[in-house]
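Before drawing any conclusions, I needed to go through one protein's amino acid sequence and its backbone structure tokens, quoted below without any editing.
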Amino acid sequence: MKQIKVLGTGCRNCQTVYELVRLAAEKKGVEVELEKVEDMAEIMAWGVMSTPGVVVDGELVHAGGIPGPDDIEEWLEE
């Protein structure tokens, strides 16, 4: 099971990324533990200065803006 965290303060882009990851995992049949992290101290601890950020299995893979569908699919395959 993949552990994915979407880091963001709850803005529209952060919510969009959360939904995109959730839908992609559902579509691919990949089991994920998806978590939304809105605590600014935890977001900063990951070194994210521009949200949304995405952490997959303990590794920061994206920060700032909405990732493309290819990026999301790649995270789910790793």
The domain at 2-77 is CATH 3.40.30.10 (Glutaredoxin). The chain has one domain: 2-77.
